[in-house]
Specification:
This is Transcription initiation factor IIE. InterPro entries: Amphi-Trp_dom (IPR027598). Keywords: Initiation factor, Protein biosynthesis. By secondary structure, the chain is an alpha+beta fold. The protein has a domain at 11-65. The chain is built from one helix and four strands. The protein has one helix at 11-26, and strands at 31-32, 35-36, 46-54, 57-65. The strands form two sheets. Strands 1-2 form a two-stranded antiparallel sheet. It has a two-stranded antiparallel sheet with strand order 3-4. Strand 3 (46-54) and strand 4 form a beta hairpin. The longest helix has 16 residues, at 11-26. The termini are far apart.
Length: 83
């Protein structure tokens, strides 16, 4: 499921926004659309910075992603191959 909140403001307002949300993220206090954002501490995080600049505008993106691992059940049965 995807959750998103959009904001518009000046460069100074954006700076204040970043200064607030990053500490909130690491303190476990950041929420998006009422959903708490939790970075897992038990697996690797993949994080990227992307910058694009074109004639009609630009974009700066910070992306953090991770995979949820699914534990495989151990098979208690012994399987034998007979020729």
């Amino acid at each position: 499921m995807k959750f998103q909140q959009d904001f518009v403001g000046s460069k100074a307002e954006f700076a204040d926004f970043i200064k607030k949300i990053i500490p909130d993220l690491f303190a476990g206090k950041l929420s998006v659309e009422g959903r708490n954002v939790v970075l897992p501490g038990d697996r690797e995080l993949d994080y990227k910075i992307k910058f694009t600049e074109e004639e009609d505008g630009g974009a700066f993106n910070l992306k953090v992603s991770w995979e949820n691992t699914v534990e495989e059940e151990e098979d208690d049965e012994l399987q034998l191959e007979v020729d």
